[in-house]
Amino acid sequence: ELVFDRVHYSYPLSRAVEEKICASYELVPWPEDETPQGTHELFFCESNQAAQQRALRVLHSDSLTYESRSDGSYQRKMQSFSSGLVKRMYCNRMLTEGFDDPRITRVYIGKETKSEILNYQMVGRALRFLPNKRAQIYCIDRPCALRVEAALRRAG
Fold first, then answer.
1. In Å, what is the CA distance from 103 to each residue of 47, 113, 114, 124?
2. Residues with Cβ within 8 Å of residue 125, at least 6 apart in sequence
3. Listed residue (124, 137, 122) closest to 46, CA to CA
4. What are the CB-based long-range contacts (under 8 Å, 24+) for 111-114?
């Protein structure tokens, strides 16, 4: 992989954590109680329908789907999430470009994604740096945890 006149630049995740560019993190076991533990939690689901159903069952949560873009509710939902009124946002795919909130401390990966890049993008939502922050990454099962671990290893 050559870029910039055949010079390869890399910045491993471990160095970014050490230099406080990214938050430290840990993979933790899936909780028995799926009630939000704080604010600014993201939960990635298998489908938009699953995201909507989960959000209906959990207080102080909402779902973000592509329909949110077309029906005009996206901005309102994101403002509620950003303010902490909505503690957990359920979604199926990555949030749109430009979404970057360093207060996200917990990411729940409740979907199968074979792509290391997509796994890393989901985890990356919690890696934005804040002083004294330790991101928590929840994987729904062992295969998911192995995929996320592989993505983090590849990131260095």
1. 25, 24, 27, 12
2. 42, 95, 101, 104, 107
3. 122
4. 111/44, 111/45, 111/46, 111/140, 112/46, 112/143, 112/144, 113/147, 114/147
DSSP assignment of 92-142: SSPPPTT---TT--EEEE-S----HHHHHHHHHTT-B--TT-EEEEEESSH
Identity of residue 59: L
Pair 151, 117: CB distance under 8 Å: yes
pTM above 0.85, yes or no: yes
Q: How far apart are CA 101 and CA 116, in angstroms?
A: 22
The whole-angstrom separation of Cα 2 and Cα 119 is: 24
pLDDT per residue as tens digits for the range 96-117: 555 678 999 999 999 888 788 8
Quick: pLDDT tens for 1-57: 555 667 777 899 999 999 999 999 999 999 998 889 989 999 999 998 999 999 999
Q: Which residue has the tokens 């099962």?
A: 141
Q: How confident is the model at residue 119 (pLDDT cuts 50, 70, 90)?
A: confident
